[in-house]
């Protein structure tokens, strides 16, 4: 067997016995550079040689090792070091320079959420034949309902799971301000930290996912669809390799970063008058669970042909048409919306719902909750 074939076979096979990683670094003053990595970054000395005139040292921390050598060529020039919060480490800065010239960059081991400033827009998303669906995680199809993301502050997605059965997910959590999942069609089986056994999220149901609650998608029906809204648009998803789900049940008022978990079950919904006459609403209790941060509701007209003139003073207002038809007008423009269409409406913009079909059903999401809207 020639060496080329051997290398190819080796590259395709898992290498057994891996114990860590050795990173080479050149230096001109071995004792001074060793002292920097030992005293400042917590490394320990594992080996040094030759004894009569040391030119190389091996230092380690956990499974990470560096090889400091006077004869090392093309060694590492920048080393990123994970810290709990490098910005608040007393006496430290975000970057250090070692005696051998290596830049030591302190980065967050647990990156914080970044929330861009909201830039509201009136955004229409139609679900006709020209709608664009992209292939996302685990083969799911995504339709972006808010392409410019309100400046990066919000995301709204219509998601389809084409094939039913187990979903290749893992226990994870999101660094978010707000996130809700509304089941549009079919069902999805979910498990959440502290919420007992896995359950089915069925059409019309929704959940509030509080910041950093651990969860996992287990399986779904073929053709299942969900509407997912969150803030900020680009948020960090972290895997939790130490937790398995389900876990024991917390008290219903357990606090997850200032919010409590909510599971709204459509078949148990109660309907009350909406702020606009001629409509009824069911509130998911997400407003209370987020302490007024966000509100999620489903709205229906009480009869065919109802109309409503509205204006709100919220950071975010979004409607998704679950069933029926409605005409929306604002700024002397009119749009016809049907099932699976959506519209985001800026605050302080007057708008009107007219020609509401009797079977109209709207998913409404607002930030803040604005309890008066209910």
Structure characterization notes:
This protein is mainly beta and 374 residues long. It folds into three domains: 18-108, Roll (2,3-Dihydroxybiphenyl 1,2-Dioxygenase, domain 1), CATH 3.10.180; 123-253, Jelly Rolls (Sandwich), CATH 2.60.120.10; 268-373, Sandwich (Jelly Rolls), CATH 2.60.120.10. Helices cover 6% and strands 42% of the residues. It has helices spanning 3-12, 30-39, 286-289; strands at 21-26, 44-49, 56-61, 64-69, 78-83, 95-97, 103-108, 123-125, 134-135, 141-144, 155-161, 165-166, 172-175, 178-185, 187-192, 199-202, 206-208, 215-220, 224-231, 236-239, 262-264, 272-273, 279-283, 295-301, 306-310, 316-323, 326-330, 333-337, 342-344, 351-356, 361-367. The strands form seven sheets. It has a seven-stranded antiparallel sheet. The chain has a seven-stranded antiparallel sheet with strand order 9-10-11-19-14-17-21, with no helix packed on it. The protein is elongated and about 95 Å long. The mean pLDDT is 91.
Topology:
Elements: H1 3-12, E1 21-26, H2 30-39, E2 44-49, E3 56-61, E4 64-69, E5 78-83, E6 95-97, E7 103-108, E8 123-125, E9 134-135, E10 141-144, E11 155-161, E12 165-166, E13 172-175, E14 178-185, E15 187-192, E16 199-202, E17 206-208, E18 215-220, E19 224-231, E20 236-239, E21 262-264, E22 272-273, E23 279-283, H3 286-289, E24 295-301, E25 306-310, E26 316-323, E27 326-330, E28 333-337, E29 342-344, E30 351-356, E31 361-367
Parallel strand pairs: 1-4, 5-7
Antiparallel strand pairs: 2-3, 3-4, 6-7, 8-29, 9-10, 10-11, 11-19, 12-18, 13-20, 14-17, 14-19, 15-16, 15-18, 17-21, 22-23, 23-24, 24-31, 25-30, 26-29, 26-31, 27-28, 27-30
